[in-house]
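Exercise 7b. C-alpha coordinates:
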Protein backbone atom coordinates (compact mmCIF):
# COMPACT_ATOMS: atom_id res chain seq x y z
CA UNK A 1 0.00 0.00 0.00
CA UNK A 2 1.54 3.30 -1.04
CA UNK A 3 0.93 6.59 0.67
CA UNK A 4 0.50 9.76 -1.35
CA UNK A 5 3.25 12.24 -0.66
CA UNK A 6 2.63 15.93 -1.31
CA UNK A 7 5.81 17.30 -2.79
CA UNK A 8 5.49 20.97 -3.64
CA UNK A 9 5.94 21.92 -7.26
CA UNK A 10 8.87 24.30 -6.98
CA UNK A 11 8.60 27.11 -9.46
CA UNK A 12 11.74 29.15 -8.81
CA UNK A 13 14.46 29.49 -6.21
CA UNK A 14 17.27 31.86 -5.35
CA UNK A 15 19.80 31.78 -2.52
CA UNK A 16 17.40 33.98 -0.49
CA UNK A 17 14.10 32.25 -1.12
CA UNK A 18 11.93 29.98 -3.21
CA UNK A 19 8.41 29.63 -4.52
CA UNK A 20 6.16 26.72 -5.29
CA UNK A 21 2.64 26.00 -6.40
CA UNK A 22 0.38 24.08 -4.05
CA UNK A 23 -1.69 21.52 -5.95
CA UNK A 24 -4.40 21.30 -3.30
CA UNK A 25 -5.11 25.02 -2.95
CA UNK A 26 -3.90 26.21 -6.39
CA UNK A 27 -1.92 28.93 -4.63
CA UNK A 28 1.54 30.30 -5.20
CA UNK A 29 3.59 30.15 -2.00
CA UNK A 30 6.60 32.44 -1.70
CA UNK A 31 9.24 31.94 1.00
CA UNK A 32 11.55 34.94 1.25
CA UNK A 33 13.63 35.32 4.38
CA UNK A 34 11.15 35.31 7.25
CA UNK A 35 8.23 36.09 4.96
CA UNK A 36 5.98 33.24 3.90
CA UNK A 37 3.08 34.35 1.71
CA UNK A 38 0.39 32.35 -0.02
CA UNK A 39 -1.21 34.00 -3.06
CA UNK A 40 -4.06 33.31 -5.40
CA UNK A 41 -2.69 33.85 -8.90
CA UNK A 42 -4.30 37.29 -9.30
CA UNK A 43 -2.99 38.40 -5.90
CA UNK A 44 0.48 37.20 -6.87
CA UNK A 45 0.36 39.21 -10.10
CA UNK A 46 -0.72 42.31 -8.15
CA UNK A 47 2.04 41.78 -5.59
CA UNK A 48 4.60 41.35 -8.39
CA UNK A 49 3.39 44.61 -9.97
CA UNK A 50 3.71 46.37 -6.60
CA UNK A 51 7.31 45.13 -6.15
CA UNK A 52 8.28 45.99 -9.73
CA UNK A 53 6.83 49.51 -9.46
CA UNK A 54 9.24 50.52 -6.70
CA UNK A 55 11.83 52.83 -8.24
CA UNK A 56 15.08 51.31 -7.01
CA UNK A 57 17.30 53.47 -9.22
CA UNK A 58 16.07 56.73 -7.69
CA UNK A 59 16.51 55.30 -4.19
CA UNK A 60 20.09 54.33 -4.95
CA UNK A 61 20.97 57.92 -5.78
CA UNK A 62 18.98 59.40 -2.90
CA UNK A 63 21.37 59.94 0.01
CA UNK A 64 18.72 60.31 2.71
CA UNK A 65 18.39 57.63 5.36
CA UNK A 66 14.75 57.01 4.43
CA UNK A 67 15.83 55.69 1.02
CA UNK A 68 17.82 52.83 2.52
CA UNK A 69 14.63 50.89 3.27
CA UNK A 70 11.31 50.29 1.60
CA UNK A 71 8.10 49.12 3.19
CA UNK A 72 6.40 46.48 1.09
CA UNK A 73 2.78 46.31 2.12
CA UNK A 74 -0.10 44.25 0.89
CA UNK A 75 -2.72 44.57 3.65
CA UNK A 76 -5.20 42.18 2.03
CA UNK A 77 -2.51 39.48 2.22
CA UNK A 78 -1.16 40.43 5.66
CA UNK A 79 2.22 41.35 4.21
CA UNK A 80 4.09 44.20 5.83
CA UNK A 81 7.85 43.98 5.42
CA UNK A 82 10.61 46.52 5.84
CA UNK A 83 13.24 45.59 3.26
CA UNK A 84 16.66 46.97 2.44
CA UNK A 85 17.31 47.84 -1.18
CA UNK A 86 19.35 44.64 -1.58
CA UNK A 87 16.49 42.57 -0.17
CA UNK A 88 14.07 44.37 -2.46
CA UNK A 89 16.21 43.49 -5.49
CA UNK A 90 16.34 39.87 -4.32
CA UNK A 91 12.57 39.78 -3.80
CA UNK A 92 12.07 41.25 -7.25
CA UNK A 93 14.28 38.51 -8.72
CA UNK A 94 12.23 35.87 -6.92
CA UNK A 95 8.79 37.14 -7.98
CA UNK A 96 9.88 37.76 -11.58
CA UNK A 97 11.45 34.30 -11.79
CA UNK A 98 8.27 32.81 -10.37
CA UNK A 99 6.19 34.67 -12.94
CA UNK A 100 8.42 33.37 -15.73
CA UNK A 101 8.05 29.79 -14.45
CA UNK A 102 4.25 30.14 -14.29
CA UNK A 103 4.12 31.44 -17.86
CA UNK A 104 6.46 28.70 -19.08
CA UNK A 105 4.41 25.98 -17.35
CA UNK A 106 1.23 27.40 -18.84
CA UNK A 107 2.73 27.48 -22.33
CA UNK A 108 4.04 23.92 -22.05
CA UNK A 109 0.70 22.71 -20.71
CA UNK A 110 -1.20 24.29 -23.58
CA UNK A 111 1.18 22.84 -26.16
CA UNK A 112 1.34 19.34 -24.71
CA UNK A 113 -2.26 18.84 -23.60
CA UNK A 114 -4.53 21.27 -25.39
CA UNK A 115 -3.04 21.16 -28.87
CA UNK A 116 -2.14 17.50 -29.52
CA UNK A 117 -2.29 17.96 -33.29
CA UNK A 118 0.84 20.14 -33.12
CA UNK A 119 2.95 17.50 -31.38
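Sequence design result:
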Amino acid sequence: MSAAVNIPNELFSTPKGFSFQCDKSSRIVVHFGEMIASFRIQDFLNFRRLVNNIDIKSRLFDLSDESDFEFVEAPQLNINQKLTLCELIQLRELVNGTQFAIELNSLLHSILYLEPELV
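Instructor comment: Helices lie at 41-52, 56-61, 85-114. The chain has three helices and six strands.
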